[in-house]
């Protein structure tokens, strides 16, 4: 392993070299001062401080049931949130309870994370999934901060990469006070990386808890008032580049048998909205952004969500849901969310980042279909209402049955917080 001073110098150089890339990428170009460790001050009040770090909008959403449970158990808790992407920042306004302070995460170099820790002085640092940042963990532990992991996940590929990396850099895994992990396989891989068996617990995936929370009736009604009720809805959620033809083909097939069928399309990244608008117009469909308002959207064949925090409500309005990231090799997106709304779900074969979701739902609310099979599967659900209703209810029941991970997390995390 490299000496710590050399690690510090290399980490700082890598962070500085990463800055131009972060500024160039649309998803990460905001918050330069915060990425250098200049974080907004926390509120001056009594009670422990929890710093939770989650990289993306999806990670923030998945971790929030834990925050909610901890806040309910310890109302005096001050919640400090950091993230990496612009979409995560945009999601903050949808969180309940809201964080007391939120900011972009400091780059993982000692200079920047020391600055951030000195500003926030948390009692506990809670990392989401695989956010194992060596400098952040080391500097937190040096200040007596308890560091824990929630929704911990470790794929075989990631485990091999971390094992190689930790041959050169200080391994943060043994320093973790509590590891709340999704599966037995995840626990086995963390133990191989040096986690203490007495501190590693299989608590499940809080994504199940997040999905089991249905959107408020007010939020669903507000979106329905914009989209209108003219014809049945197909909802395509969290789609990635390369899946446009999948969605367009599914809608074309559905409209061939149900002429009034419409599409509510929620791309994973808002920068794709313009391209999707152009694609739908080229097919001769009337298309509108959700932000255009009720008059324009109600008359459209395709409404594209260009807002944050409305995906669950969009699924609640649909008769059939397509979940993206699964017809291209991105690992799949959240199939639990539409299933929790009682909507039958179709996804592709690339669900390697969510095998637990597939295990819970396939055959019980969701179905795997390849690109060629998708149009016929969509048509089937639109033309067999009773089958679609049974499938949707099976999915709702399956999601409800696996909820409860947040409570298990809280059991192990609460003792880390000072009274």
Determine and state the CATH class of the largest domain.
Alpha Beta
Assembly category: single chain
Shape: globular
Tally of helical runs: 19
Tell me the CATH superfamily of the largest domain: 3-Deoxy-D-manno-octulosonic-acid transferase, N-terminal domain
Number of strands: 14
What order do the strands of the largest sheet run in, or round the barrel if closed? 3-2-1-4-5-6-7
Please give the share of residues in helix. 40-55%
Task: Report the CATH architecture of the largest domain.
Answer: 3-Layer(aba) Sandwich
> Structural class of the helix and strand makeup?
alpha/beta
Largest sheet: 7 strands, parallel
What name does CATH use for the topology of the largest domain? Rossmann fold
- Separation of the first and last Cα atoms: 38 Å
Strand content: 15-25%
Average pLDDT, all residues: 93
Instruction: Give the radius of gyration.
Output: 22 Å
Enumerate the spans where pLDDT stays under 50 for 5 or more consecutive residues: none
Number of domains: 2
Keywords:
7-stranded parallel beta sheet, 2 domains, globular, Rossmann fold, 45% helix, 19 helices, 419 residues, alpha/beta
How would you characterize the overall build of this protein?
The protein folds into 2 domains: 4-203, Rossmann fold, CATH 3.40.50.11720; 214-402, 3-Layer(aba) Sandwich (Rossmann fold). The longest helix has 21 residues, at 4-24. Strand 10, helix 13 and strand 11 (302-304) form a beta-alpha-beta unit. Helices cover 45% and strands 15% of the residues. It has a 7-stranded parallel β-sheet with strand order 3-2-1-4-5-6-7, sandwiched between helices. It has a 7-stranded parallel β-sheet with strand order 10-11-9-8-12-13-14, with helices on both faces. The two termini are 38 Å apart. The mean pLDDT is 93. The chain is globular, with a radius of gyration of 22 Å. It is built from 19 helices and 14 strands. The chain is of the alpha/beta class.
